Amino acid sequence: MLAMNYRGPYRVRVDRKPVPVCEHVQDAVVRVTRTCICGSDLHLYHGLVPDTRVGMTFGHEFIGVVEEVGPAVKNLSVGDHVLVPFNIACGQCHFCKQGLFGNCHESNSQASAVGAIYGYSHTAGGYDGGQAEYVRVPYADVGPCKIPSNMDLDDAVLLTDVVPTGYQAAEMAGIQPGDTVVVFGAGPVGIMAARCAWLFGAGRVIVIDHIDYRLDFARTYCPAEVYNFRSLEDPVVFLKKTTDSLGADVCIDAVGGDAAGSALHTLLGTKLKLEGGSATALHWAINSVKKGGVVSIVGVYGPTGNLIPIGNVVNKGITIRANQASVKRLLPRLIEHIEAGRLNPKALITHKVPLEEIADAYHIFSAKLDGCIKPVLVPPSAHG
Q1: Residue 211 shares a structural domain with residue 341
Q2: In this prediction, what percent of the chain has a pLDDT beyond 70?
Q3: What does each C-alpha distance from 49 to 72, 123, 254, 303 come to in angstroms?
Q4: Among 100, 101, 227, 264, which one has the highest count of C-beta atoms within 10 angstroms of its own C-beta?
Q5: Model confidence, pTM
Q6: Residue ranges making up the domain that contains 371
Q7: What is the pLDDT of residues 4-57, one digit of tens each?
Q8: How far apart are CA 314 and CA 286, in angstroms?
Q9: Structural domains counted in the chain
């Protein structure tokens, strides 16, 4: 089969790999019909995530047709078209039983924090991902969800990560009716978080980024007030002034370790790798939120330490909530929102690229070329 092959930072290509097989009685093999490049994949692509090994296949956002099931799989049948959450979860451990599928203790038992994620380095379990023609899906009775017959496949593939992550960012923020919500980052997740903030009753939504075409998209899609931080002398001072000097009720960090805007954090986090990525957006979120406010973090950082103003967190009485999205828990509600027309995920997709051209797709997305918001890859197997 054709599959993405990581060869080192900024180097990816398509190679031939063996078609995966069921290795456990609870496995399934899925033929991929849509797969995405995620902003989180760019952290891997840029060399910011430890133990990202040469030869790995990325991709934690994919849907496909079930080709094979293990003998213990009861909920799926060959031929089912399924969306596969990016979390690999056993469904039975202490954390899965709490609905914390992003923190499964069984699927990534060597880790003390994150559960397993498809195609996301050996820190997240070392599982190959979905930027390929076929994928092995562990715990197949737990994660995969049959795609409703009336759902557009482009909507379905964004339910594997982007929509639930954006929605959970707003959910964790505990938004109250009328709240002012600031979202740092106008990538797909930040845009979705801003859109979902309205579902929780926000009275004002502001999006901060430095890429004008993404801000233009957010202004229309979310809709939101948008500001390019490069046009602001100090984003924190600006946000304080525009919120009656109090600060925002809620700040959402949807950027993570690739954040621009601070020479210090860029040097320490992305050049020298002394931090788990550049923590610029997190700084701004902590310093822009009001006393007693909430900072919700869905941006991805590496496991090493970061220089953050913890004293401000304590002295302002800030609540910080953060996690990987528990996709399985959120799917029923999100499918309802899509069917009711309250969310339109597929509008985020700006590029559809054959899997064979994956190197170009990564370059376009990483370099923010051609107005790219969200790229979807289509494998040759999609037409089988």
Answers
A1: no
A2: 99
A3: 34, 8, 17, 8
A4: 101
A5: 0.95
A6: 2-161+326-383
A7: 999 999 999 999 999 999 999 999 999 999 999 999 999 899 988 888 999 999
A8: 10
A9: 2
Whether the predicted pLDDT of 153 surpasses 80: yes
**Burial state string for 124-157 with b = 16 or more CB within 10 A and e = fewer than 16:** bbebbbbbbbbbbbbbbbbbbbebeeebebbbbb
Q: What is the CATH number of the domain that holds 178?
A: 3.40.50.720
What are the beta bridge partners of residue 36? 376
The count of other CB atoms within 10 Å of the CB of residue 227 is: 19
Q: Tens digits of per-residue pLDDT, 247-277? A: 999 999 999 877 888 887 887 777 767 777 7
Same domain membership, residue 211 and residue 148? no
Q: State the Cα–Cα distance between residues 70 and 139, nearest whole angstrom.
A: 10
Same domain, 288 and 339: no
Residues 29 and 22 sit within 8 Å (Cβ to Cβ) = yes
Residue 144 carries which side chain, given as an amino acid letter?
Answer: P
